Amino acid sequence: MAEVDGQHKSHGMGLHEEQLTGRTQQIFFSPEESDNFLYPESFEVDLDNKAEFDAGDMEISAINLKIRALMQAGHGHIVVKNPLAKHSLGVGILNRLKLEFEGSLGYFGCGLIDGPNVTVHGRVGWSFAENMMAGVAVVEKNAGSTFGAAIRGGDLVCKGDVGSRTGIDQKGGTVIVGGRSGAFSGFMMQRGRMIILGDAGINLGDSMYDGTIYVGGKIESLGVDAVPGEISDLEADWIERKLSAHGLSAPNGVKSLQKIVAGKKLWNYDNLEPTEKKIVL
Amino acid sequence: MSENKTDVDYFINKSGLDSEREKEIGQHIGYRYDVNLLPDYSLLTPFLKKYMETMGWDDLNWLEDIHLGYEENRPAVFDRNINGWVSVPENLELPDNQQERDMIARELLIKFQMSPRHPMIDLNKAYRKF
Questions:
Q1: If you ran DSSP here, which 8-state letter would residue B94 be given?
Q2: Which of A116, A255, A277, B30 lies 20 to 30 Å (CA to CA) from residue B56?
Q3: What are phi and psi of A210, to 5 degrees?
């Protein structure tokens, strides 16, 4: 193992003198903060300033760097032609931007995005928009497994069907599936919302800790600790609003959606040990 | 969130350590606010409307998951970018309902995250690769 160097940048920043008690960082909001809407180091872009390029003969990293260079030049609307199902395209964009892919993406497309509005006029492979933080990502056709894995915020929409483990480890945001979703959708969900307008596969919401899942079609089976809930008027309005923003609607009306929440039997911090947990479930 | 906490100031005025386990370890267990509470869009502030417009979004987007919570007994907002709580100024008068408090929390968090004094700015300078 490499020796830890005392000259590392983190020493200069004081990170090694800081007391990390694990309880508080003692950070306070300042009333003098100015009204900024964008990250200080984000690119100034104009959403009406459009650029497009053909990615057919380009390597993955060259495509991503080209997107970055166009943003740097002030383009706020970028169209990527012929993505040819290449992997890891459109990742790590921390900027407001309209980004379109005219074709399909491979795996891990648009991961770690924070802000852009992305449209894929095709299909996507595994783990599209994993760890998405903010923005809107819409897939016009079908998506592979682990769609929106560990998503933390924003709207992620697939207008077709998706594979298994949709929104695995979801920590926020909204995942919308226009068609069917495979097995173990909402697995280990911690918060956020998932709307599946078609059928859901086996073990829906397995081991979910919190969050909400709405299903318009048939649920093959619920997972461990996933239980039915009741839709409130506030939720019904919110779902209606969210679906209409993406040109979607619930098959038999919003009120007919099935709501699934955490049964919180796995919230066993108080007394239960792992062996006792098995008895409860 | 504890089910019996209907008082919006419960975690400001009380320790919130209710169960035996919480008393034993001296820490609260679980969320101290309703993480599933959806925003009431009739309470949108002009600042938030302008933010949505700037970003090109029809709704609050990631801010739908932002609520006013608590650090110890102080009202605070969780900033996922620093994985920590940011406390609300003491002199800020809070409304008497969670929905309006959440709107304030969203405004404060945007201003903090987009500020040049945000801790991520230093980390970015130190570690960014390109």
A1: P
A2: A255
A3: -165, -175
Q: Which of B47, B55, B82 lies closest to A96 in CB terms? A: B55
Number of alpha carbons in the 13 Å side-chain half-sphere of residue A57: 0
Q: What is the 3-state secondary structure (H, E, C) of A219-268?
A: ECCECCCEEEECCCHHHHHHHHHHHHHCCCCCCCCHHHCEEEEECCCCCC
Q: Which residues of B touch A24 (CB under 8 A)?
A: 71-72, 84-85
Q: Least CB-CB distance to A270: which of B21, B65, B88? A: B21
The verdict on residue A8 lying in a domain is: no
User: Confidence class of residue A24 from pLDDT cuts 50, 70 and 90?
Assistant: low
The chain B residue lying nearest A48, using CA atoms, is B56
Which one of B32, B38, B43 would you mutate to disrupt binding with A, by most A Cβ within 10 Å of its Cβ?
Answer: B38
Where are any strands of DSSP class E within A33-143? 46-54, 75-81, 98-102, 114-120, 134-139
Range of the domain at A262: 142-281
**How many domains is chain A partitioned into structurally?**
1
The proportion of chain A whose per-residue pLDDT surpasses 90, expressed as a percent, equals 80
**Contact status, residue A38 vs residue B54, Cβ threshold 8 Å:** yes
- The distance of Cα A168 from the centroid of its chain, to the nearest Å, equals 10
Structure tokens belonging to residue A23 = 């309880």
Give the integer Cα–Cα distance in Å for A98 and A83.
16
Higher confidence at residue A157 or residue B14?
A157
Tell whether A136 is covered by a domain: no
Burial of B112 (0-12, 13-18, 19+ CB in 10 A): buried
Locus of tokens 């399909």: A104
